[in-house]
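User: I'm writing a tutorial on reading structure tokens. Could you give me a worked example: one chain, its sequence, then its tokens, then a sentence or two explaining what the tokens reveal?
Assistant: Sure. Here is the example chain.
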Amino acid sequence: MNLPKQVKDYCKKCDSHTLQSLKAFKPRAPRTLAWGTRENVRKHKQGYGGKAEFTAMVKKQSKKPVFLAECTKCHTKHYFVIPKRMKKVELKAS
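And here are its predicted structure tokens:
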């Protein structure tokens, strides 16, 4: 799906619909002291524990695309999520 690089959307700070520039959202690295990360290390990456068994899990083939929208007037940022699952999304200049 092709999306324009600028979309008219509601800005909370301006309290009106303004042009928003979209950027692809990339999550940061997971926190090293989070509980899930520590449990993964404890189960799978320590000592002579042998091969740890992972439970079989089928991942979904697509995700809901998430973008970072920035208001062109006040430069406030918020998430812009398209509530449909799709495999590929591109930002095109329009």
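What the tokens reveal: The chain has a mean pLDDT of 90. The longest strand covers residues 16-24.
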